[in-house]
Structure formats: C-alpha cells, structure tokens
Fold:
Amino acid sequence: MQESLFNTAALPSHQRYRLGEATLDYYPAWLDSAFADHCYQTLLHETPWRQDSLRFGGKAVAVPRLQAWYGEPKARYGYSGLTLTPLPWTPFLNDLRQRVETQVQAPFNAVLLNYYRDGKDSVAWHADDEAELGPAPLIASLSLGAPRRFELRALEGRDKYALELTHGSLLVMGPPLQHQWRHRLPKQPEIHAGRLNLTFRFIHGMA
Ligand SMILES: O=C(O)CCC(=O)C(=O)O
Ligand SMILES: [Mn+2]
Structure:
C-alpha cells in the first residue's frame, strides 16, 4: 500500500460559518506554531499592560484581564466609559497588522491587545459596535497561547455557538455580526496558562 505524502489529519486551513447574514471566517493554524510561540513571548514582554477599571454605581471594578491599545495617533477608542489613547505602532505589531491586512484584504488602523493571565480572566458578553467602528465593523482577532472557548449568541432568537480559539488562529468577524450577535470569552477556571488576543479594528472619523 502506498503511503500518502500528505498528512490528511492536518487541520483544515479555513472554516467559514454563516451566522444569519454575517460571515465568520476561522483560520485555525493561521500562524505556524513556532512563529506563534515567538509572537506570544515578544508581545507578553514588550507590551506595557494596563489594568483598567470600570465604574459600576460609584464603585471601581477591575477589568478581568490586562489590556493595551495601539494605533494611529487619532485612533481614540471608548467603551464602557473608558477612553483609550493609542500607543504608537511597534515594528512587531505593524508587521502583524500587514499580515492580517493581506489575509483579510481590508485596512486596520488600530489593535486592542488583551492578556488573559489564566482561566479566571475573561471578557463579558458584548459587541464591538461603538460608533467609531462605523456602521459595518470588520474585526480580525488573532489568538496566541492557551486555547480558550469563544461564545456567540444571537440578539434575536436563541442561537448560540462556541468555538475553541487555538494558538496562532485568526478569526474574522464580518458585518453585520456586531449588530446581530454578542460574543464573550467565559471564565474557564481549570486553565492555568495565559492567552493573548489581538483584535485589529478600523476606527472611522479620525479628525
Ligand atoms: O479574547 C477574545 O477572543 C475576544 C476579545 C474581544 O472580544 C474584544 O477585545 O473585544
Ligand atoms: Mn469583542
């Protein structure tokens, strides 16, 4: 019997999901694992991570993750009462941005970095639908480090999906996903390793 030269057990290079009118494109091994390791280590160590707090009824509550915001000087971004002023692109982040732009065939002028220190860190249900993202946000999300569960739920009806975002994967959320669905990264207390996530965005109306 002739052995196949190809590893048929390899991950598919691309999966496309239709969520109502929106398209979700998932590239499980978008970066090879050695380069993804290098990205994780570099970004973990070179990023000036901030611990932000949100105010709930006069009480400051620490966001359950660390963050950093990079982009063009005017790409200011606000959510839940926080305004983030961008740090200038580093050569490393700019290179990643160019790779993402080539893959997605769309421009990005800012990136939000999230550092989930372990499975107790999370992001609650939300949509990336702030006015500065324009009427049809396109968001490209690069994951590095520990695989984590990513959940989506429809605003109307009961549809719910979950996806495991692996090390080096790219998830592209096309419009109108942000206006018809919510997403979150739930806590997974059994996970003791860290994860980084980079969401590349295009901020409109920069005066
Ligand atoms: O960490 C993730 O995969 C999602 C992050 C996210 O939804 C956000 O930063 O808006
Ligand atoms: Mn989001």
Q: What stands out?
A: The pocket of 2-oxoglutaric acid (ligand 1) is lined by residues 112, 114, 123, 128, 141, 143, 150, 165, 183, 185, 197, 199 (CB under 6 Å).
